[in-house]
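Changelog note: in this version the structure field was regenerated for every chain. One regenerated record is shown below for reference.
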Amino acid sequence: MKYKEKKIKLDNPLSFWNYFKNEERFLFYNPLKKEYILGAKRLKTFSMKENLKDYLYTFSSMRFFDSIKDEKWAGFGNETIAFEYYLVEKDGQQTLYYLKDFIEIENREVKICKHSYKYATEDEQDWKELFSVANNSISRKEVNKVVISREIKIECDRVVNVDSLLENLLKKNPNSFVFSYFKEGKTFLGATPEILVQKEKDNILSYALAGTIERREKNDELQKTRLLNDPKNRYEHEIVIDSIVNVVKKFTEETIVDETTTLTLKNVHHLYTPIYTKDKSSTLLEWVRRLHPTPAVGGNPANKALELIKRHEKHERGLYGAPIGIMDQNGDGVFVVGIRSALIEQNTVYAYAGCGIVDESDYEIEYIETKNKLRTIIESL
Protein backbone atom coordinates (compact mmCIF):
# COMPACT_ATOMS: atom_id res chain seq x y z
CA MET A 1 0.00 0.00 0.00
CA LYS A 2 1.56 3.26 -1.11
CA TYR A 3 0.39 6.78 -0.38
CA LYS A 4 0.48 9.30 -3.19
CA GLU A 5 1.75 12.74 -2.33
CA LYS A 6 1.35 16.28 -3.52
CA LYS A 7 2.81 19.57 -2.34
CA ILE A 8 0.10 22.01 -1.34
CA LYS A 9 -0.02 25.44 0.28
CA LEU A 10 -2.57 26.24 2.95
CA ASP A 11 -2.45 29.43 4.98
CA ASN A 12 -3.27 27.37 8.05
CA PRO A 13 -3.06 23.57 8.55
CA LEU A 14 -6.39 23.82 10.38
CA SER A 15 -7.98 24.12 6.91
CA PHE A 16 -7.30 20.37 6.62
CA TRP A 17 -8.88 19.78 10.04
CA ASN A 18 -11.94 21.79 9.04
CA TYR A 19 -12.33 20.08 5.65
CA PHE A 20 -12.92 16.72 7.37
CA LYS A 21 -15.24 18.20 10.01
CA ASN A 22 -17.50 15.12 10.22
CA GLU A 23 -14.74 12.49 9.97
CA GLU A 24 -12.60 10.92 12.65
CA ARG A 25 -9.35 12.87 12.65
CA PHE A 26 -6.34 14.02 14.66
CA LEU A 27 -3.86 16.88 14.88
CA PHE A 28 -0.41 16.63 16.47
CA TYR A 29 2.05 19.53 16.69
CA ASN A 30 5.64 18.82 17.75
CA PRO A 31 7.34 22.03 18.98
CA LEU A 32 10.80 20.43 18.98
CA LYS A 33 10.59 19.79 15.23
CA LYS A 34 8.09 22.59 14.52
CA GLU A 35 6.11 19.93 12.67
CA TYR A 36 2.38 19.43 12.15
CA ILE A 37 0.95 16.00 11.38
CA LEU A 38 -2.79 15.70 10.76
CA GLY A 39 -4.77 12.66 9.67
CA ALA A 40 -8.38 12.03 8.66
CA LYS A 41 -10.72 9.12 7.81
CA ARG A 42 -9.94 5.97 9.78
CA LEU A 43 -8.39 3.27 7.62
CA LYS A 44 -7.10 0.50 9.88
CA THR A 45 -6.36 -0.32 13.52
CA PHE A 46 -3.27 -2.19 14.69
CA SER A 47 -2.51 -4.72 17.38
CA MET A 48 0.36 -4.18 19.81
CA LYS A 49 2.88 -6.25 17.82
CA GLU A 50 1.64 -5.53 14.30
CA ASN A 51 4.08 -4.09 11.76
CA LEU A 52 3.39 -0.48 10.79
CA LYS A 53 5.23 -0.71 7.48
CA ASP A 54 3.34 0.72 4.48
CA TYR A 55 1.31 3.05 6.70
CA LEU A 56 2.72 6.55 6.67
CA TYR A 57 1.81 7.45 10.24
CA THR A 58 -0.33 6.00 12.98
CA PHE A 59 -2.05 7.90 15.77
CA SER A 60 -2.20 6.09 19.10
CA SER A 61 -3.87 6.78 22.44
CA MET A 62 -4.22 4.89 25.71
CA ARG A 63 -6.59 5.35 28.60
CA PHE A 64 -5.14 6.30 31.96
CA PHE A 65 -6.74 3.17 33.43
CA ASP A 66 -7.58 0.19 31.23
CA SER A 67 -11.27 0.11 32.12
CA ILE A 68 -13.78 2.95 31.93
CA LYS A 69 -17.33 3.36 33.21
CA ASP A 70 -18.14 6.98 32.38
CA GLU A 71 -20.13 7.06 29.13
CA LYS A 72 -18.50 10.27 27.92
CA TRP A 73 -15.19 8.39 27.44
CA ALA A 74 -16.78 5.43 25.61
CA GLY A 75 -14.90 4.56 22.43
CA PHE A 76 -11.87 6.68 23.29
CA GLY A 77 -8.39 5.25 23.75
CA ASN A 78 -6.46 1.98 23.59
CA GLU A 79 -6.19 2.15 19.80
CA THR A 80 -3.46 2.62 17.21
CA ILE A 81 -5.00 3.89 13.96
CA ALA A 82 -3.90 4.59 10.38
CA PHE A 83 -5.80 7.15 8.29
CA GLU A 84 -6.57 7.61 4.58
CA TYR A 85 -5.34 11.21 4.38
CA TYR A 86 -2.44 13.02 6.01
CA LEU A 87 -1.17 16.56 5.97
CA VAL A 88 2.43 17.08 7.06
CA GLU A 89 3.89 20.55 7.52
CA LYS A 90 7.58 20.98 8.24
CA ASP A 91 10.25 23.54 7.32
CA GLY A 92 7.60 25.70 5.65
CA GLN A 93 6.58 22.87 3.28
CA GLN A 94 3.18 21.15 3.26
CA THR A 95 2.59 17.71 1.77
CA LEU A 96 -0.78 16.06 1.34
CA TYR A 97 -0.67 12.24 1.34
CA TYR A 98 -3.61 10.24 0.04
CA LEU A 99 -4.37 6.66 -0.98
CA LYS A 100 -6.85 6.99 -3.83
CA ASP A 101 -8.43 10.31 -4.63
CA PHE A 102 -6.72 13.68 -4.41
CA ILE A 103 -8.82 16.30 -2.65
CA GLU A 104 -8.76 20.04 -3.17
CA ILE A 105 -8.69 21.72 0.25
CA GLU A 106 -9.70 25.35 0.31
CA ASN A 107 -8.05 27.88 2.58
CA ARG A 108 -10.38 28.59 5.47
CA GLU A 109 -9.75 31.43 7.85
CA VAL A 110 -9.99 30.45 11.49
CA LYS A 111 -12.19 33.02 13.15
CA ILE A 112 -11.22 33.44 16.77
CA CYS A 113 -14.31 33.61 18.93
CA LYS A 114 -14.68 34.31 22.61
CA HIS A 115 -16.98 31.85 24.34
CA SER A 116 -19.22 32.94 27.15
CA TYR A 117 -19.26 30.22 29.77
CA LYS A 118 -20.05 29.31 33.35
CA TYR A 119 -18.70 26.67 35.68
CA ALA A 120 -21.27 23.92 36.05
CA THR A 121 -19.52 22.28 39.00
CA GLU A 122 -18.06 23.49 42.28
CA ASP A 123 -15.43 21.01 43.40
CA GLU A 124 -13.40 22.77 46.08
CA GLN A 125 -14.90 20.65 48.86
CA ASP A 126 -14.26 17.47 46.85
CA TRP A 127 -10.67 18.62 46.32
CA LYS A 128 -10.25 19.27 50.03
CA GLU A 129 -11.43 15.75 50.85
CA LEU A 130 -9.24 14.20 48.15
CA PHE A 131 -6.21 16.15 49.37
CA SER A 132 -6.88 14.97 52.92
CA VAL A 133 -7.01 11.33 51.80
CA ALA A 134 -3.72 11.72 49.91
CA ASN A 135 -2.08 13.59 52.78
CA ASN A 136 -3.13 10.97 55.33
CA SER A 137 -1.79 8.18 53.13
CA ILE A 138 1.56 9.99 52.92
CA SER A 139 1.58 10.53 56.72
CA ARG A 140 1.03 6.78 57.22
CA LYS A 141 3.96 6.19 54.79
CA GLU A 142 1.75 4.14 52.44
CA VAL A 143 2.87 6.37 49.57
CA ASN A 144 5.48 9.12 49.27
CA LYS A 145 3.72 10.84 46.38
CA VAL A 146 0.26 10.73 44.81
CA VAL A 147 -1.01 12.88 41.94
CA ILE A 148 -4.62 13.94 42.43
CA SER A 149 -6.68 15.68 39.77
CA ARG A 150 -9.73 17.83 39.15
CA GLU A 151 -12.43 17.65 36.48
CA ILE A 152 -14.10 21.01 35.87
CA LYS A 153 -17.34 21.00 33.89
CA ILE A 154 -17.78 24.19 31.87
CA GLU A 155 -21.00 25.07 30.03
CA CYS A 156 -20.64 27.47 27.08
CA ASP A 157 -23.42 29.60 25.63
CA ARG A 158 -23.11 27.83 22.26
CA VAL A 159 -21.45 24.83 20.64
CA VAL A 160 -17.71 25.14 21.27
CA ASN A 161 -15.76 26.34 18.25
CA VAL A 162 -12.97 23.75 18.35
CA ASP A 163 -11.09 25.38 15.45
CA SER A 164 -10.86 28.63 17.43
CA LEU A 165 -9.82 26.80 20.59
CA LEU A 166 -7.10 24.90 18.70
CA GLU A 167 -5.79 28.07 17.07
CA ASN A 168 -5.54 29.68 20.49
CA LEU A 169 -3.78 26.64 21.98
CA LEU A 170 -1.22 26.72 19.18
CA LYS A 171 -0.58 30.46 19.46
CA LYS A 172 -0.49 30.68 23.24
CA ASN A 173 1.59 27.53 23.89
CA PRO A 174 4.53 27.54 21.46
CA ASN A 175 6.67 25.29 23.69
CA SER A 176 3.99 22.62 24.09
CA PHE A 177 2.88 19.60 22.09
CA VAL A 178 -0.61 20.47 20.89
CA PHE A 179 -2.92 17.56 20.12
CA SER A 180 -6.54 17.09 19.13
CA TYR A 181 -8.56 13.94 18.43
CA PHE A 182 -12.13 14.03 17.11
CA LYS A 183 -14.33 10.95 17.17
CA GLU A 184 -18.11 10.49 17.15
CA GLY A 185 -18.99 14.09 17.99
CA LYS A 186 -16.42 14.54 20.78
CA THR A 187 -12.97 16.11 20.80
CA PHE A 188 -10.12 15.50 23.22
CA LEU A 189 -7.46 18.18 22.97
CA GLY A 190 -4.72 19.88 24.91
CA ALA A 191 -1.28 21.50 25.01
CA THR A 192 1.14 19.36 26.99
CA PRO A 193 4.80 20.04 27.80
CA GLU A 194 5.56 16.45 28.73
CA ILE A 195 7.16 13.68 26.64
CA LEU A 196 6.49 10.23 28.04
CA VAL A 197 8.87 8.57 25.58
CA GLN A 198 10.41 9.33 22.19
CA LYS A 199 12.11 6.78 19.93
CA GLU A 200 14.38 7.63 16.99
CA LYS A 201 16.03 4.41 15.74
CA ASP A 202 17.71 3.05 18.88
CA ASN A 203 17.70 6.38 20.78
CA ILE A 204 15.16 6.59 23.61
CA LEU A 205 14.22 9.80 25.43
CA SER A 206 11.89 10.42 28.37
CA TYR A 207 11.12 13.51 30.45
CA ALA A 208 10.99 13.81 34.19
CA LEU A 209 8.61 16.76 34.56
CA ALA A 210 7.39 17.53 38.07
CA GLY A 211 7.57 20.50 40.38
CA THR A 212 5.72 23.69 39.50
CA ILE A 213 5.69 27.38 40.27
CA GLU A 214 3.46 30.08 38.79
CA ARG A 215 4.87 32.73 36.48
CA ARG A 216 4.82 36.40 37.43
CA GLU A 217 4.92 39.60 35.44
CA LYS A 218 7.67 40.95 37.67
CA ASN A 219 10.77 38.99 38.73
CA ASP A 220 9.83 35.92 36.70
CA GLU A 221 13.49 34.84 36.54
CA LEU A 222 13.49 34.81 40.32
CA GLN A 223 10.57 32.38 40.22
CA LYS A 224 12.73 29.93 38.26
CA THR A 225 15.48 30.20 40.86
CA ARG A 226 12.98 29.65 43.65
CA LEU A 227 11.68 26.54 41.93
CA LEU A 228 15.16 25.11 41.36
CA ASN A 229 16.06 25.66 45.01
CA ASP A 230 12.77 24.62 46.60
CA PRO A 231 13.25 21.40 48.67
CA LYS A 232 9.62 20.26 48.35
CA ASN A 233 9.55 20.59 44.55
CA ARG A 234 13.03 19.06 44.14
CA TYR A 235 11.95 16.07 46.25
CA GLU A 236 8.81 15.62 44.15
CA HIS A 237 10.91 15.85 40.99
CA GLU A 238 13.54 13.35 42.19
CA ILE A 239 10.81 10.75 42.75
CA VAL A 240 9.95 10.97 39.05
CA ILE A 241 13.60 10.81 37.93
CA ASP A 242 14.29 7.76 40.12
CA SER A 243 11.20 5.94 38.89
CA ILE A 244 11.95 6.47 35.19
CA VAL A 245 15.61 5.53 35.66
CA ASN A 246 14.65 2.34 37.52
CA VAL A 247 12.39 1.29 34.63
CA VAL A 248 15.02 2.13 32.01
CA LYS A 249 17.73 0.15 33.83
CA LYS A 250 15.62 -3.01 33.68
CA PHE A 251 15.79 -3.03 29.88
CA THR A 252 19.00 -1.20 28.89
CA GLU A 253 22.62 -1.05 29.95
CA GLU A 254 23.28 2.68 29.91
CA THR A 255 21.22 5.58 31.23
CA ILE A 256 22.10 9.27 30.94
CA VAL A 257 20.32 11.68 33.29
CA ASP A 258 20.71 15.23 32.06
CA GLU A 259 20.89 18.37 34.20
CA THR A 260 17.69 19.48 35.92
CA THR A 261 16.59 22.87 34.60
CA THR A 262 13.29 24.72 34.22
CA LEU A 263 10.79 24.52 31.39
CA THR A 264 8.83 27.74 30.90
CA LEU A 265 5.22 27.65 29.72
CA LYS A 266 2.62 30.38 29.39
CA ASN A 267 1.43 30.31 33.01
CA VAL A 268 3.92 28.17 34.97
CA HIS A 269 7.51 26.96 35.21
CA HIS A 270 8.27 23.26 35.68
CA LEU A 271 11.35 21.37 36.81
CA TYR A 272 12.55 19.37 33.84
CA THR A 273 15.13 16.60 33.39
CA PRO A 274 15.66 14.68 30.12
CA ILE A 275 16.65 11.01 30.48
CA TYR A 276 18.34 9.13 27.62
CA THR A 277 19.14 5.53 26.78
CA LYS A 278 19.63 3.23 23.76
CA ASP A 279 17.59 0.17 22.84
CA LYS A 280 17.55 -1.78 19.57
CA SER A 281 15.13 -4.53 20.52
CA SER A 282 11.99 -2.90 21.96
CA THR A 283 9.16 -1.10 20.16
CA LEU A 284 7.96 2.36 21.06
CA LEU A 285 4.64 0.93 22.25
CA GLU A 286 6.50 -1.42 24.59
CA TRP A 287 8.29 1.56 26.10
CA VAL A 288 4.96 3.36 26.50
CA ARG A 289 3.58 0.39 28.44
CA ARG A 290 6.67 0.23 30.63
CA LEU A 291 6.74 3.89 31.60
CA HIS A 292 3.05 4.82 31.94
CA PRO A 293 2.08 6.13 34.40
CA THR A 294 5.17 7.85 35.75
CA PRO A 295 4.97 9.40 39.23
CA ALA A 296 4.42 12.74 37.44
CA VAL A 297 0.79 11.68 36.84
CA GLY A 298 0.29 8.68 39.13
CA GLY A 299 2.45 8.47 42.23
CA ASN A 300 4.93 6.34 44.11
CA PRO A 301 4.80 3.47 44.87
CA ALA A 302 2.71 3.23 41.72
CA ASN A 303 0.32 0.44 42.70
CA LYS A 304 -0.72 2.07 45.99
CA ALA A 305 -0.99 5.56 44.51
CA LEU A 306 -3.11 4.34 41.60
CA GLU A 307 -5.36 2.39 43.95
CA LEU A 308 -5.95 5.57 45.95
CA ILE A 309 -6.75 7.54 42.78
CA LYS A 310 -9.18 4.86 41.55
CA ARG A 311 -10.98 4.68 44.86
CA HIS A 312 -11.22 8.35 45.79
CA GLU A 313 -11.30 10.52 42.65
CA LYS A 314 -14.96 11.08 41.81
CA HIS A 315 -14.34 11.58 38.08
CA GLU A 316 -12.87 9.24 35.51
CA ARG A 317 -9.57 10.25 33.92
CA GLY A 318 -10.20 8.69 30.50
CA LEU A 319 -7.44 10.06 28.24
CA TYR A 320 -6.40 12.72 30.74
CA GLY A 321 -2.81 12.07 31.86
CA ALA A 322 -2.58 9.14 29.45
CA PRO A 323 -0.18 8.48 26.54
CA ILE A 324 -1.00 10.08 23.17
CA GLY A 325 1.37 9.73 20.25
CA ILE A 326 2.43 9.49 16.65
CA MET A 327 4.50 6.72 15.02
CA ASP A 328 5.92 6.52 11.52
CA GLN A 329 6.16 3.37 9.37
CA ASN A 330 9.50 2.46 11.01
CA GLY A 331 7.92 2.52 14.47
CA ASP A 332 9.74 5.70 15.47
CA GLY A 333 7.84 8.58 17.02
CA VAL A 334 6.84 10.28 20.23
CA PHE A 335 4.22 9.80 22.93
CA VAL A 336 3.28 12.71 25.15
CA VAL A 337 1.28 12.82 28.38
CA GLY A 338 -2.26 14.11 27.86
CA ILE A 339 -2.23 16.86 30.49
CA ARG A 340 -3.45 20.50 30.18
CA SER A 341 -6.34 18.90 28.35
CA ALA A 342 -10.10 18.79 27.94
CA LEU A 343 -12.90 16.68 26.48
CA ILE A 344 -15.42 18.67 24.47
CA GLU A 345 -18.94 17.67 23.47
CA GLN A 346 -21.30 20.23 21.94
CA ASN A 347 -21.32 23.20 24.37
CA THR A 348 -19.75 21.30 27.30
CA VAL A 349 -16.07 21.32 28.20
CA TYR A 350 -14.60 18.90 30.75
CA ALA A 351 -11.22 20.42 31.67
CA TYR A 352 -8.61 18.53 33.70
CA ALA A 353 -5.68 19.45 35.93
CA GLY A 354 -3.74 17.72 38.66
CA CYS A 355 -0.76 18.11 40.96
CA GLY A 356 1.58 15.92 42.96
CA ILE A 357 1.04 15.67 46.71
CA VAL A 358 4.07 14.89 48.86
CA ASP A 359 5.03 15.45 52.47
CA GLU A 360 4.77 19.19 53.25
CA SER A 361 2.33 19.86 50.41
CA ASP A 362 -0.14 22.62 51.26
CA TYR A 363 -3.82 22.25 50.35
CA GLU A 364 -4.34 25.86 49.28
CA ILE A 365 -1.09 26.16 47.29
CA GLU A 366 -1.86 22.94 45.40
CA TYR A 367 -5.40 24.09 44.64
CA ILE A 368 -4.03 27.36 43.20
CA GLU A 369 -1.56 25.31 41.14
CA THR A 370 -4.42 23.36 39.52
CA LYS A 371 -6.15 26.67 38.73
CA ASN A 372 -3.00 27.87 36.95
CA LYS A 373 -2.84 24.65 34.94
CA LEU A 374 -6.52 24.86 34.00
CA ARG A 375 -5.83 28.27 32.46
CA THR A 376 -4.29 26.52 29.42
CA ILE A 377 -7.79 25.42 28.35
CA ILE A 378 -9.86 28.22 29.84
CA GLU A 379 -7.81 31.03 28.26
CA SER A 380 -8.21 29.33 24.89
CA LEU A 381 -11.99 29.50 25.12
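Spot check on this record: The first strand starts at residue 4 and ends at 8. The CA atoms of residues 195 and 234 lie 19 Å apart.
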